[in-house]
Design brief:
This protein is mainly beta and 107 residues long. It contains 2 helices and 4 strands. The protein is globular.
Amino acid sequence: MIGTRPILEVKDLVVEYASADGPVRAVDRVSFEVGPGEFLGIVGESGCGKSTLLFAIARLLSPPAEIVSGEVRFEGSSTRSPACWERRSPARSRAARSFSKAGTWSP
């Protein structure tokens, strides 16, 4: 992505779930960028952290999950900023997610 600003930037994202035995790390220092016109697919085994990663990016995590560290930026703005997801925000109108059921994808 030389000379092009990424649409989505994820840097060193760490997500943990609180448990009686201590924190359980579900996402461990994940980093990537998605530029204009690019697509990113997240695939992996059941329970490997795909949904946790995507929920963390969209700020849809709920306890006991928590973002421990890292940064997520959409169109240059931190997703931690409430303004990023306000009703009239360009980010809100341009962001999309697609959830799938296991076994429904076919090449």
